[in-house]
Write a structure and sequence with these properties.
Layout (H helix, E strand, L loop, with lengths): L8 H10 L25 E7 L2 E7 L16 E8 L7 E9 L6 E6 L7 E8 L2 E2 L3 E4 L11 E6 L10 H7 L5 E4 L30 H12 L2 H9 L2 E3 L21 H18 L17 E5 L3 E5 L15 E3 L14 H13 L4 E5 L17 E2 L7 H13 L5 E5 L5 E6 L12 E5 L9 E2 L3 H9 L3 E15 L3 E9 L9 E10 L6 E2 L1
Parallel strand pairs: 9-10, 10-11, 13-15, 15-17, 17-19
Antiparallel strand pairs: 1-2, 2-5, 3-4, 3-6, 6-7, 6-8, 9-21, 12-13, 14-16, 18-19, 18-21, 20-21, 21-22, 22-23, 23-24
Helix pairs in contact: 2-4, 3-5
């Protein structure tokens, strides 16, 4: 049997330099490639830290906004290094990975064999070019008793609605890790619909559907230097919400009534693009429309993190997903938020946890916030409040198993909230079953205001709610065995450069107390 000869080295280099996208047999290029431009324009990232390592990520993209990122359809070798010092004079791990065209020339390296509870620097090298360096910290051992963990919560970063000043500021915090609750990209708008007045920038193209569309949207976001600085500052734990695929999707349903088999094609494409651009382990590799996003992590015996997926396994929003209303379907006994498998997994984790603080890191509010003006009840039905039966099961598990020190971290609302969680907030009995901190958006919603009219009404109508703010920013959690302290960071503007950061409020919950107090 005859075989086509491999392309010549000169031919490969010319095609790389030109960013050619003609079909070439996939093969392992042993010579250093020559790129048409700097290949690491999307930066670097680390994720999912454990006690002996973490994932490091990059994507070769010398022309990020072109099909294929300006790379030919051949695999390219990438060298990676992890060092004990920022200057890379003490390299402790080194290896080579292949950036494959099937995955958009992204690279996911699961680094192991490192020491627990310490900082490391990492970088990539290809074609004589070095990536920007990144920093990541390994976790303490599972049996360790850390004195402190300090981490951030971010999400909802519509590129069109604001600058990423908050990412630049959180990069300066020197955090142990960052949790991203989702809405990393937004799938809509762009050239097909001009951005709102005052928006500082616009998406390229309209609504995204194809793999090239999603890849270009991620590339546009990741080219932002402030977002790159945030990724390079600490390892991230990443989950998704809705806009990584389509607004308010759940399970096999989108908001437009698309046939499930057609929507699933879009889901499959979006999941691949998400994996290609996030620092995730191989355990999260997409398989059709399934992707293992829910998972657990720990910070010694101080924190147990349960990273949840409240989209993939959820039943359809009740009552037509109308705003600030309710109906009998809210109490549907067959309704699901997490799905049976994830719910059972979470309940086992919570019941056997020996950590001081048990964390539910997820996307949509658990507090049953009364949203409707007047005497009639009304909820945001895209939150847990729209799913009374699974919400009751979750809170009954916390109560019946006497699981204390439960902290819920949430996003999606584009506002800051702090509050206490009861099974029935209209008739609270006893101590709260958990506290919830909701982090505002990085940019979605534009500059915002200190407090909107609906926020003032929410505070008046919901006594379990202790704080609300409608500016952009992020959350910093400073946790010790004795007290959990959450700081709500805000920016005075994001539609123009130079936004000033301040701490708008801070709240604390003491070990065993279950009550929020101003800090």
């Amino acid at each position: 049997m005859s075989h086509a000869p491999p392309p010549s080295r000169r031919g490969l280099l010319l095609s790389l330099a030109a960013g050619a996208t003609s079909l070439v047999p996939t093969w392992r290029a042993r010579a250093n490639p020559v790129f048409a431009d700097f290949p690491f324009q999307l930066g670097v990232a680390a994720g999912d830290p454990v006690e002996d390592g973490f994932v490091i990520w990059t994507r070769l993209a010398p022309k990020p906004l072109e099909p294929g990122g300006g790379m030919p359809p051949v695999a390219a070798p990438v060298t990676w290094e992890v060092a004990a010092d920022p200057g890379f004079t003490q390299v402790v791990r080194r290896g080579e990975a292949l950036a494959r065209p099937e995955l958009g020339h992204s690279v996911h390296v699961e680094v192991a064999g490192l020491e627990p509870d310490r900082d490391y620097a990492y970088r990539f090298l290809a074609g004589g070019e070095a990536s920007p360096p990144g920093r990541a910290r390994t976790t303490p051992t599972r049996s360790a008793q850390p004195r402190r963990a300090r981490f951030g919560v971010v999400g909802c970063q519509s590129y069109e609605q604001g600058l990423y000043t908050a990412h630049r500021r959180i990069a300066e915090e020197g955090l142990d890790f960052i949790y991203c609750y989702g809405d990393y990209i937004y799938e809509g708008r762009g050239a097909a619909a001009p951005p709102r007045p005052g928006s500082p920038r616009a998406h390229l193209g309209g609504e995204i559907y194809s793999l090239d569309d999603y890849r270009r949207r991620y590339a546009q976001y990741k080219m932002d230097p402030d977002l790159q600085a945030s990724h390079a500052s600490a390892a991230w734990f990443c989950t998704w919400d809705d806009h990584e695929i389509d607004n308010n999707w759940v399970g096999e349903k989108d908001q437009d009534g698309t046939p499930p088999e057609v929507f699933n094609l879009r889901r499959q494409i979006a999941l691949q693009a998400y994996y290609e651009h996030m620092p995730l382990r191989a355990s999260s590799f997409p398989r059709g429309v399934r992707m293992q996003v829910y998972r657990s992590a720990a910070w010694g015996r101080l924190l147990d993190l349960n990273l949840l997926d409240t989209r993939s396994h959820r039943t359809d929003q009740p009552c037509g997903d109308k705003w600030a209303t309710t109906c009998d379907a809210v109490r549907d006994p067959a309704a699901q938020v997490l799905g049976q498998a994830q719910e059972a997994w979470l309940f086992r984790n919570l019941a056997r946890s020996q950590a001081r603080w048990k964390v539910l890191a997820q996307q949509v509010m658990v507090m049953d916030l009364e949203r409707r003006e007047g005497p009639e009840p009304g909820y945001n039905l895209d939150t847990w409040a729209g799913y009374a039966v699974p919400r009751t099961r979750l809170l009954a598990h916390l109560r019946d198993r006497r699981i204390g020190n439960t902290v819920i971290l949430t996003g999606d609302e584009h506002q800051h909230y702090a509050g206490e969680v009861f099974r029935d907030s209209r008739n609270p009995a006893g101590a709260p079953l958990a506290v919830e901190f909701v982090a505002t958006s990085i940019s979605s919603g534009g500059d915002g205001v200190d407090q909107r009219a609906d926020g003032r009404r929410y505070l008046a109508d919901n006594p379990f709610l202790k704080f609300n703010n409608a500016q952009r920013g992020y959350v910093v959690c400073d946790v010790s065995p004795a007290v959990w302290r959450t700081e709500f960071k805000v920016l005075d503007q994001v539609t123009r450069p130079g936004g000033a950061l301040s701490t708008r409020a801070a709240f604390a919950v003491e070990n065993g107390a279950g009550r929020l107090v101003p800090a």
